[in-house]
Amino acid sequence: MLATQLSGLATVEPGIEETLDLVGGFDDGFSHGFARLGEQPRAALAALADTLAVTPLGERVREAVEKVVAGSLADEHLTALAGGRAALLGAVHDALLARLDTALGRARADWTAPAPAETAGSVPENVLAGCRSWLRELAIAGWRGVDHDLVAASAPTLDAALAVPALRRLAVLLDGLAAELRGCCPMSTMDRLPARRWADLWARALLLAQPGGLPAGLAAATPVSGRLLPLGADVHEHGTAIQVQVHAVLEPAGGAPARLVRTSVSAAKVETIVGPAVWRLLGSHPVLLGALAKRHAVEITDLPLLPGGDLVWRDDQARPAEPADPFATARLRLPEAVAPAVAPLDRHPVRIAEPVLLEGYSATADDRGGVTLELGGQSLPVDVFRLPRCAPLTPELVARSSACLGLLRWDAGRWLLQPLAVRHGSKRATAEAHTGDWALGPTDPRVVKAEAKSGDAVAVLRERAGRLLRR
User: Fold this and answer.
1) DSSP assigned state of 441
2) Burial zone of 24 (CB within 10 Å; 0-12 exposed, 13-18 middle, 19+ buried)
3) Which among 30, 52, 402, 470 is least buried, having the fewest CB atoms inside 10 angstroms?
4) Do 415 and 372 contact (CB within 8 A), yes or no?
């Protein structure tokens, strides 16, 4: 990535800060509940309606604001407000992504709406109505008014939603929101609420809970074959779950243009499984893990590719291919790869994560553990807090690096780089560290020794679970 490209990201697109302020005003009003709107929240809702007046949503949002201010909180009014909020964040996303694509010279596919999902008719309307009802109660109470009883009221709805395969995405989203709220009760003791995050989850859930609001899923997938060249792994770790999202370049069979794609594998876990041990939970995907650890390409056959650029991973439809250096892939194939279109509901600034290659920079570390890359007079902060604990990639290695393959993200009004791999000096030689290096087990002797001393937590838990099931 050249300095001239990086300089194109130095300034913030006009209107972005003002748009986010509008969203912030909505979120502040939500914190105290729409049943008791004060003067400031009313002004924030009015500003939201004024901003959207010239859009197709204008009339519906205006009516919704008037009804909510008057004390009427029907599903259709809250849905219009959620849609208006999502539209504003979608506009910010589109402006940022367009600026990034222009800076990188990256081509992006156009979005084509998929055909309606075949499973749409099998979704019980009463379950969707139950989801909307609980979300309406949250809007009435506001985050400050949430208590254990209100969180517990979600249980019957969640049980019903989890029982419907087509509603699994919505059910997991609601379950996660309920768990966060439960863990924070009582809200009166919290100095600061994650209002933006919770409002994001609430709005997305409400839009998904509309009839026909669910994504088309596999019904809209296209089978693809070809050679998959991994760039790196973005590890998402939670106390009870682990997901590895692999960013890669796909060379389709038949000579079609190369494409940027993602594929993810995940597993449930317990909080005691941390560090390199989490990779053992994904052992049912040896081909994908082997490609990360051994840095080789993968030949795939008829894997479903969703419109948003996500490959549905099936290990039995993939086989190892020749070695493929991620840095070489990024240098030679990434510039010409076509980026996927972004689905409407996914258009949110926090979702932006674009693979880039940086070379020829100087890295500096500060006394707080942060790292900044300087390239051509431009500065780019490194998001070292996203570095996973299950990989050898550390802030110290990033600070010593001369090349970095990572994801450009936008957070809190600035661009950040999340490293996936670095090339650094090591004992008069050049070495590399990747987030997927330990996918088949740690290679650092000190880590291996520490794991041997502490024991295999995954094996112990599996053995205990087996004994319980045999009883």
Assistant:
1) S
2) middle
3) 470
4) no
Distance CA 428, CA 65 (A): 65
Q: Can you list the positions of beta strands (E) in 239-370?
A: 241-252, 259-268, 296-305, 310-311, 318-323, 354-359, 362-365
d(CA 250, CA 244): 18
Pair 244, 435: CB distance under 8 Å: no
For residues 61 and 84, the answer to whether their CB atoms sit within 8 Å is: yes
Tokens of 350: 């926090």
CB 282 within 8 A of CB 265: yes
Q: 142: Cβ–Cβ under 8 A, 6 or more apart, which residues?
A: 30, 31, 32, 33, 34, 35, 36
